[in-house]
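Hi C.,

You asked whether I'd gotten around to modeling the 274-residue construct. I have! Everything is below, sequence then structure, no commentary in between.
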Amino acid sequence: MDITKTIRLNNGVEMPRLGLGVWRAEEGGQVENAVKWALEFGYRSIDTAKVYGNEAGVGKAIRESGVPREELFVTTKVWNDEQGYESTLKAFDNSLRDLQLDYIDLYLIHWPVEGKYNDTWRAMEEIYASGKVKAIGVSNFHAHHLDDLMSHAEIVPVINQIELHPYLNQKELRDYCKDKGIVVEAWSPLGQGKVLENEVLRQIAAKYNKTVAQIILRWDLQHDIVTIPKSVTKSRIIENGSVFDFQLTDEDMAKIDGLNKNERFGANPDTFDF
């Protein structure tokens, strides 16, 4: 098992299980270098978003990498102020233009904007039918948002990208998504760094001669959670990708499961206001 290992989405598309997130990576040299280093190491999945303001840099790094486009998996997202039917169609075209790609692999609704996400999804179904995107999904959706979406939708989302780390393991939502055939993807898998000092995780890391970050990412992978740790540091990007040469025991997986305290470091999808 290596960094190119994939998981099959419900429409048959194969998605890498581990990718690079570029939230807060500055447009220009910073994001370009991060993507370049990731691709050189062997990453094949890059996750960006309109609101990150770095789609152009991601696209430039991809073009200059020399990696064949068909080997790559590029995700971007429609932001809240562009949700709705017509505005989503336009937002997608703008992202495609900024990335300078012929197609996008995965397009996501970034947050469930009340009163708009169903119209946004209708536009995304149309984009999917056009072939300009290989798969469509959502981000930050609770089960009740998904229930509502799917009561109107023709296509079941392939992904629900959510805040997920050992302090917020989202077990109930993961079980719900599994039942619906929706893959769960973790954003902020390292809890914005706030779980790295946990003593249980440090003990497990010492046992495997790995870092705490590597233990957490391995825990994601063994739960079939797609994970996209973000970094702009070359050594960290390499470290985060070096999680395919060991396996956690069932006992250690259970210990990490037991750290859950339903603690969010990001916004709650029911109360966000942006």
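If it helps when you're writing up: The chain is about 40% helix and 15% strand.

Thanks,
B.
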